[in-house]
Amino acid sequence: MLEINSIRNGIVIDHIKAGYGMKIFNYLKLNNVDYSVALIMNAQSKKLGRKDIIKIENKLEIDFKVLGFIDPNITINIIKDEVIENKVNLKSPEKIENIIKCKNPRCITSIERNIKQSFYLADKGIGEYRCIYCDEPYNESQIV
């Protein structure tokens, strides 16, 4: 049986869509830290069937917009003295900047330097984002 102890102070990123945990782990650069981190993949979940979980034994500044963009169903638990101090349920952000890159070679962001890569939420139901400059749809492989 797999056993991962509770954390004393830190963050638990829960209800991550199965397979997305590594994406978040890499985005947060958790492979380069000097504190305890647990990435649990394909854990059983009554709600999701399978899910990933990340436990971080440290305080960490996290951009909730980015995590909400990657998976809007994530729950973030802030842990203090082994008790959940705060619980945050994420959602898809209406606008994101410099998280993904427009793939349209004719887009102004491909031609001009120093222009923010900005996308808006076009369809919340399917999580579709589009470039605010050229309306090019987002492709999941484009995370900056």
Count of discrete alpha- or pi-helical segments spanning 4 or more residues: 3
**Biggest sheet, open or closed, and with what strands and sense?**
5 strands, antiparallel
Cα-based radius of gyration, to the nearest Å? 17 Å
Task: Tell the overall outline.
Answer: elongated
Kindly report how far apart the N and C termini lie: 37 Å
Named at the architecture level, the CATH assignment of the largest domain is 2-Layer Sandwich
In total, the number of domains comes to 2
CATH domain topology of the largest domain: Alpha-Beta Plaits
Helix content: 10-25%
Instruction: Name the beta content range.
Output: 35-45%
Overall mean pLDDT: 88
Ranges with pLDDT <50 over ≥5 residues? none
Q: State the CATH class of the largest domain.
A: Alpha Beta
- Would you count the extended β strands for me? 8
| CATH H level, superfamily name of the largest domain | Aspartate carbamoyltransferase regulatory subunit, N-terminal domain
Question: In sequence order, what are the helices and strands, one letter per element?
Answer: EHEEHEEEHEE
Helix-strand category: mainly beta
